Protein 1
Amino acid sequence: MFFLTTAQASTICDVKPDVLKCSQASGADNNGWWLRSPGRDDDCAAFVDGEVGNVRESGDDVRNMLGVRPVLKLNLSSVIFSSETKTFSLPVPVTGVSLNPATAQTITVDGSVAFTATVAPDGASDKTVKWSVSGTKSDAVKLYSDDNCTTEVGTDTTETLTVYAKGVSAGTATVTVTATNGTDVPTDDKTASCDVTVNPATYTVTYKVVNGTWSDDTTADKTETVQSGSKPVSVPTGMKASEGYTGGAWNTNPADSTITEAKTFTYTFTAKPLAEVTTAPRAKTGLSYTGEPQDLLDSYGAADTSMEYAIGTDAATVPTEGYSTTAPSGTNAGR
């Protein structure tokens, strides 16, 4: 706090002289007020004529009673002006900043984790921050202001205190928030950091068997988890065909497939073809009784299968039971 010089008062007078006007102070000889510059004589000091707002460089006798108008010098870059109250106040500096979560995080590619910065103290004058990603794999993570990860935060000063770190590629990066105290001076910056490890995405591979069983005689679907860009390593083998089915093949060979999404592989057995009779059975003729069982048929057979036989009660009735793969024989042949 100090008095103005004649030069300082003259600068104000040139711009807005009314500022220099004032009423007469209590006990003063007139409405003039002292400056700190000397007057023309040794016993004089410069003053301002408060009636008209003029600077009197010649001065007045210091023994006279004039008013004083102390001046407070403000560094406007370091104070806060309230347009509502028309008052100045000193800023409340930032003492620290923290991140939640504060411990290292692990996500997958296309996954995300939210970070919220808390600037201390709660009444800090400037709570703006800067966000950044660093590390040898800084490109593994990008920061967004929305949970859908559509708007990047950028590295400029922002009032955004919650960001979403999205995994872009595999690797580990460091997310840092910096509270700048509203200045470009790095010495008063406060920072907090957290590591984010991004793992490759994983997908479920499903195996199905149709018209058969797995090697353990079960039929329930089997699954395994495979990292994106890799091939399955637990492909089932030893599948068994159900009765009436044969062969068997994958719709796509899992072992040769690179997985980039959830995938289902199906192993299917095909139905056996209908049996083809190559030689029709014929009854033997000219049999003579020997007392021993004798084959009743000759010249019979079928391709890729076996035939079953039964003896009916007469030539017009089809037997309903008693079938066997053994050709029928009789002991009363020829009688």
Protein 2
Amino acid sequence: MQSMLMNASRVFPLQTATIFSLFVLLLGGCAHVSYQDRARTPLKPMETLAPIKSQDFDVPPRVLEGKRPDYPEPEGANREKGFVSIICTIDAQGRLIDFDLESATSPSFAIAALNAISQWKFAPATKKGHPVTAKIRVPMHFNAL
């Protein structure tokens, strides 16, 4: 057993401290992600859109295209987390015609979320196959990496 360890130390001359240092450097390089770069990534299909209970539609509206909100700079620099919930009214043409701020952990997060949502494109809700106006809840989580 000892001879195997001796052979291993000759083949792999790195010591524990060196391996640990390389590991820390690797993690440090991977951990840096710009909040603004993260915000610019395309949205995944919005499965988190929560329709307000309604008998006005069978299929809720869905996001066709849009980007994540920009992470507010003071909160991003401080690695703060936040949450915003917005009630949106989407008309039968898929246009955002009205929105109300339901809740927000801070005004900065609310402004960023409202700015992003105002640029999204939606597919309208449908009732019996026909487009209809509908209200939906859009929850947004801001998680600092």
Protein 3
Amino acid sequence: MPSRDDDHTGARIREQRRLARLTQRQLAERLPYSYSYLNQVECGARPATAAFVAACARALTIDVTVLTGQPYVTELQRDRLAELVRPIRESLDLYDLGPDPELTPGRRNNSSPGPTASAPRCGPPACAARPATFQGSSPS
């Protein structure tokens, strides 16, 4: 006889069904299985077949591993992400931007002047207002 504890596939189906705000009857209508069979699986009286679990996952629009309780799914996803990020980190560690001329050792640049009322925040540079002079030409 199957175990009646709450750590079985039927209990996970029940949990996901409730999260989807469906009754057993509503979920059974979306499945090619009877309401009675769904009820028995959720209660742990009958084991869930692979086809039944797949149908429930499809009806609930979730991954089958959520219902089967496959261990370490999120850890595997994190490990895969770490594998993808590692070469990027290594490349960034090797890339040298050089010294920042605005910073001197031992001093932070917290006192840098911000925009003032007299200085425009955007627009053409001050030298754009002067006419261009070229070497060898004389002003007329």
